[in-house]
Amino acid sequence: MKSERIILGIDPGTSIMGFGIIKVVGNSMELVVLTELMLSKTDDHYLKLKYIFERIVQLIDTYHPDEIAIEAPFFGKNVQSMLKLGRAQGVAMAAGLSRQIPIVEYSPKKIKMSITGNGNASKEQVAKMLQQLLKLKELPIHLDATDGLAAAVCHFYNSGKVTSDKNYTGWKAFITQNPEKLSK
Question: Is 30 a catalytic residue?
Fold first, then answer.
């Protein structure tokens, strides 16, 4: 494992997508960037997917992450919302895979547990803990950015452990682990 690496954390969303990038040197981490992509002003869902892909590729080309940690969608009652969120996550993963970056997926509960020790912690509790851990002067208005950062920090804490259900190193690995995604 490299002694220095960059981790891009992504909180998928169709209104706001959050991103946090950390630099890991040895056993310590520091914040590189905390940002979000505002999508709520765009009504066209397909255009949102295009913006997501382009923004993630831009982040990758700018910061050169070694790994991507992404929050897995939670299962809600609204099927249409789940479908749209799954598409957003899929496009985010495709952007990373297009640049050959390994992707690890973590459940929201796993991320919250890694950051706060409580799998049922609120967004605010996660954000406050990240503020302390990374010595952030202030928190962003929208906590989607800190949710993306939480995915990156969770990955840092879990590096070297087999903790994720899904771990993709490229298209071949994705297809091998998801044969049902291929059309017949």
Answer: no
Q: DSSP per residue over 26-90, as a string?
A: TTEEEEEEEEEEE-TT---HHHHHHHHHHHHHHHHHHH--SEEEEEPPP--S-HHHHHHHHHHHH
Residue tagged active-site, from 67, 71, 105, 147:
71
**Average pLDDT for consecutive 10-residue bins of the chain (184 residues)?**
86 95 94 96 94 98 98 79 89 96 96 95 96 94 96 91 51 64 55
Asked if 71 is an active-site residue, the reply is yes
Point out the catalytic residue in the list 36, 67, 105, 144.
144
Domains of the chain: 4-181 (3.30.420.10)
Is 165 assigned a catalytic role? no
Q: What does pTM read for this prediction?
A: 0.85
